[in-house]
């Protein structure tokens, strides 16, 4: 049902539209940053770095609009949750943008170092899943679909598991040949960035759940990141 | 539409408090009829002791009608009939043996428009204790007046002009004078019918601050049209619509995550 004051609906719709927009930009930034990594495409990497400004700007705009709605209309119930959710989600997306930018910066940094294609394949695969997660959770936000958000949250352990296996693989390469170190460390950070993007997708799923149901997930999220354990085992 | 709703049995959606409070007022299946028109279709609610309970809902929803049942103010309206049970501390307040005057001393009321008597500030507050014979001496009475004015956060503003007329005070001060008058007879319950709707924001804030202090010693029931006020001052909120109690629950819960669609539509401003 619509608000008695129709400008209120317009405000809320404007915020939701901006969240969708910033989400789309972040998705593209992540995809482009990993594409730049696999092709060592410097120009593309630079575009990702430059594009991050727009994400920051949008996040500010969402925040300002949300604060104005709170000040002006004192939102209640689902409206309040929608606004709080939009602010949280915009924050997560802005962080996703930063992580993509960081990957792009590493592409610039590893320029000239001989790439191991098979290593990058693992990062690429990790990125595919993270991007799927991001896309699904943004769709769940747009359609206010709690179930879809829940399935995104369930799938995060897959990313964690992949990251852990990639971590071990990179560790092996580094131990084999110290000349691999620089490249592998950059790749490891890229992988870690992508793993974090997955975490942000999970956060967004939790925000969607809160927006739709008014509750937060009681039980702990499933975890499968064993890389900390394997570091200790490997040392 | 209302005729259909009257005919169907109706279930109020209830969310209990996380930690339960003792019940001060227990109402069961309260119906109020004005002449031929049923204004309240069977309201049941437990009102907790020493807490603020807010009644919200659109005009004509029955919230004030129900409030006025709690100190039998509806008795004064010709043609009004009240059915069902209301108990104050387990005692049925509609019991024919009950002294209505004594009941209204235990259940005080503050109205929408401040209504000080055309008397001095002192006499406004002293009026109740005098007619109920609560003071044994002049000193006693003075003490009651001073403490009541202090409890109503008004004493410092009027202490030098207690003999001036109460009607000469500002609107916000008049309302606090009415609250002082209500608490002078040491009631257990204070009913407030939109106590801030005629006040400016600063006077409103002062009354709200006062309500928050008073709940340590009194059970307060407040009817308000301001959702924000209900959210600010109350611990429990009850939403009325078309003579039904639709939903009641902890205020924090009701304003962030109401369970009933109609509650949500109302508090978010989506009502027709």
Automatic annotation (TrEMBL), chain B:
Superkingdom of source: Bacteria
Domain ABC transporter, residue spans: 25-267
Keyword Metal-binding in annotation: no
GO MF: ATP binding; ATP hydrolysis activity; phosphate transmembrane transporter activity
Gene Ontology terms describing biological process: phosphate ion transmembrane transport
Organism: Pleomorphomonas diazotrophica
Bilayer-crossing regions: none
Protein name: Phosphate ABC transporter ATP-binding protein
Gene3D superfamilies according to UniProt: P-loop containing nucleotide triphosphate hydrolases
InterPro entries hit by this protein: AAA+_ATPase, ABC_transporter-like_ATP-bd, ABC_transporter-like_CS, P-loop_NTPase, PstB-like
Stored PROSITE patterns: ABC_TRANSPORTER_1 (PS00211), ABC_TRANSPORTER_2 (PS50893)
Protein family: Belongs to the ABC transporter superfamily.
One GO cellular component, as annotated: membrane
Keyword Cytoplasm listed: no
SMART domains: AAA
Pfam family, one: ABC_tran
């Amino acid at each position: 049902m619509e608000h008695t004051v129709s400008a209120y609906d317009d405000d809320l719709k404007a915020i939701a539209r901006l969240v969708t927009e910033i989400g789309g930009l972040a998705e593209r930034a992540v995809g482009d940053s990993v594409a730049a990594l696999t092709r060592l495409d410097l120009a593309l990497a630079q575009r990702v770095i430059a594009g991050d400004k727009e994400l920051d700007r949008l996040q500010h705009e969402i925040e300002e609009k949300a604060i104005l709605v709170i000040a002006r209309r004192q939102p209640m119930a689902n409206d309040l949750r929608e606004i709080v959710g939009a602010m949280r989600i915009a924050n997560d997306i802005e962080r996703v943008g930063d992580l993509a930018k960081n990957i792009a910066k590493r592409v610039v940094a590893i320029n000239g170092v001989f790439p191991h294609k098979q290593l990058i394949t693992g990062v690429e695969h990790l990125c595919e899943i993270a991007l799927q997660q991001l896309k699904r959770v943004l769709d769940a936000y747009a359609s206010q679909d709690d179930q879809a958000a829940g399935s995104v949250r369930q799938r995060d352990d897959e990313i964690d598991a992949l990251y852990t296996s990639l971590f071990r693989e990179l560790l092996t390469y580094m131990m084999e040949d110290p000349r691999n170190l620089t490249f592998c460390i950059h790749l490891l950070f890229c992988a870690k960035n992508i793993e974090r993007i997955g975490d942000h997708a999970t956060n967004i799923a939790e925000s969607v759940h809160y927006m739709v149901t008014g509750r937060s997930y009681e039980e702990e999220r499933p975890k499968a990141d064993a890389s900390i354990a394997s570091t200790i085992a490997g040392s | 539409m209302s005729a259909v709703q009257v005919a169907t049995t109706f279930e109020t959606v209830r969310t209990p408090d996380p930690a339960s409070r003792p019940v001060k007022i227990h109402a069961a299946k309260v119906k109020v009829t004005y002449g031929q028109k049923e204004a309240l279709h069977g309201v049941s609610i437990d009102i907790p002791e020493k807490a603020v309970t807010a009644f919200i809902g659109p005009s004509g929803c029955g919230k004030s009608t129900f409030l006025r049942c709690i100190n039998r103010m509806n008795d004064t309206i010709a043609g009004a009939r009240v059915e069902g049970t209301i108990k104050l501390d387990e005692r049925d307040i509609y019991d024919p043996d009950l002294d209505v005057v004594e009941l209204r001393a235990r259940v005080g009321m503050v109205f929408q428009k401040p209504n000080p008597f055309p008397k001095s500030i002192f006499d406004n507050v002293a009026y109740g204790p005098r007619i109920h014979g609560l003071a044994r001496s002049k000193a006693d009475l003075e003490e009651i007046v001073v403490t009541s004015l202090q409890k109503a956060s008004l004493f410092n503003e009027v202490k030098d002009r207690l003999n001036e007329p109460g009607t000469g005070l500002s609107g916000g001060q008049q309302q606090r004078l009415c609250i002082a008058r209500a608490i002078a007879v040491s009631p257990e319950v204070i009913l407030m019918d939109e106590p801030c709707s005629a006040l400016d924001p600063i006077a409103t804030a002062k009354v709200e601050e006062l309500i928050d202090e008073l709940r340590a010693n009194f059970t307060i029931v407040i009817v308000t049209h301001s959702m924000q006020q209900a959210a600010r001052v109350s611990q429990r909120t009850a939403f009325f619509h078309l003579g039904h109690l639709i939903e009641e629950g902890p205020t924090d819960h009701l304003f962030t995550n109401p369970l009933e669609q109609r509650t949500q539509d109302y508090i978010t401003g989506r009502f027709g």
